[in-house]
Amino acid sequence: MEEGNRSTVTEFILLGLTKSSELQLLLFVIFLAVYGVTVLGNLLIVALVACEPQLHTPMYMLLGNLSFLDFCYSSVTAPNLLAGFLLQAQTISYRGCVAQIFFFHFIGGIKIFLLNIMAYDRYVAIFHPLRYVAIMNQAVCVGLVGASWVGGFIHSIIQVSIIVQLPFCSPHELDNFYCDVPQVVKLACVDTFAVELLMVSNSGLMTLLGFLVLLVSYSVLLAKLSTRSSEGRAKALSTCASHLTVVTLIFGPCIYIYARPFRSFPMDKAISVLYTVVTPVLNPIIYTLRNKDVQLAVRKLRKLHL
């Protein structure tokens, strides 16, 4: 692109999910309800884990951390989605866009590491129940969670440090409802092949490797469960099936978005909605609210307020 066509971009225009006026109000109501349930469900789990002594165990500490991350993850993008249904032209400042990319990948990176830690936790609980308290003690659990946060920060800061070095030109329209790396990189005034390769190596490879590690982990778990008693096997299988469902819902869309060249495809927006808005509302139901200990804690909480 010629130097004369370059301009300093101070904001980006978000094109949103749809421009159909007939759909906008309906979608606003639907996604407002989904976001409300996401906030209430995940914060309820965080409160239960924090306040209920029975849930002060490594497993529930990890689940509470996941719920907090889901609340934050959804809150990074859902407000933009909802505003896009009400505004004629939605804009986001350059700094706001960079900040959104940072927090989006910071939280997403933590979740990838945390899900691997949760798989390890389940392995120890199922196959080393007598040593579980010694292996997964509070210090180890806090250390692993802290490491996942550090890993998420390193992953995200790499993304942002590459983005801020790119020059951007007009037009500055993002064909999505939030700022993310693939759309923003494509607006740069330079050849982005090397940048895309770095981004795919960072986000795409990390996501793909995390998914493969989890698949291997749960495959080993399922193989070893075949030697268990029918009752113990059924309980463990139920837990593993729930975890695998969440893992697939999180990692599948991420691999689709980040482990390929940054080109637009018709399904991109639908996939983005799935893993930024829908998955965070499903996690509390799949992972936690079906758990008997959590259900007991909810009943105790209801009795206290009756």
From TrEMBL:
<keyword id="KW-0297">G-protein coupled receptor</keyword>
<dbReference type="InterPro" id="IPR050427">
    <property type="entry name" value="Olfactory_Receptors"/>
</dbReference>
<keyword id="KW-0675">Receptor</keyword>
<dbReference type="InterPro" id="IPR000276">
    <property type="entry name" value="GPCR_Rhodpsn"/>
</dbReference>
<feature type="transmembrane region" description="Helical">
    <location>
        <begin position="99"/>
        <end position="120"/>
    </location>
</feature>
<feature type="transmembrane region" description="Helical">
    <location>
        <begin position="205"/>
        <end position="225"/>
    </location>
</feature>
<keyword id="KW-1133">Transmembrane helix</keyword>
<dbReference type="GO" id="GO:0004984">
    <property type="term" value="F:olfactory receptor activity"/>
</dbReference>
<keyword id="KW-0472">Membrane</keyword>
<dbReference type="GO" id="GO:0005886">
    <property type="term" value="C:plasma membrane"/>
</dbReference>
<feature type="transmembrane region" description="Helical">
    <location>
        <begin position="132"/>
        <end position="158"/>
    </location>
</feature>
<keyword id="KW-0807">Transducer</keyword>
<feature type="domain" description="G-protein coupled receptors family 1 profile">
    <location>
        <begin position="41"/>
        <end position="287"/>
    </location>
</feature>
<keyword id="KW-0812">Transmembrane</keyword>
<protein>
    <submittedName>
        <fullName>Olfactory receptor 4D5-like</fullName>
    </submittedName>
</protein>
<feature type="transmembrane region" description="Helical">
    <location>
        <begin position="270"/>
        <end position="289"/>
    </location>
</feature>
<keyword id="KW-0716">Sensory transduction</keyword>
<dbReference type="Pfam" id="PF13853">
    <property type="entry name" value="7tm_4"/>
</dbReference>
<dbReference type="GO" id="GO:0004930">
    <property type="term" value="F:G protein-coupled receptor activity"/>
</dbReference>
<dbReference type="InterPro" id="IPR000725">
    <property type="entry name" value="Olfact_rcpt"/>
</dbReference>
<feature type="transmembrane region" description="Helical">
    <location>
        <begin position="62"/>
        <end position="87"/>
    </location>
</feature>
<dbReference type="InterPro" id="IPR017452">
    <property type="entry name" value="GPCR_Rhodpsn_7TM"/>
</dbReference>
<feature type="transmembrane region" description="Helical">
    <location>
        <begin position="25"/>
        <end position="50"/>
    </location>
</feature>
<feature type="transmembrane region" description="Helical">
    <location>
        <begin position="237"/>
        <end position="258"/>
    </location>
</feature>
<keyword id="KW-0552">Olfaction</keyword>
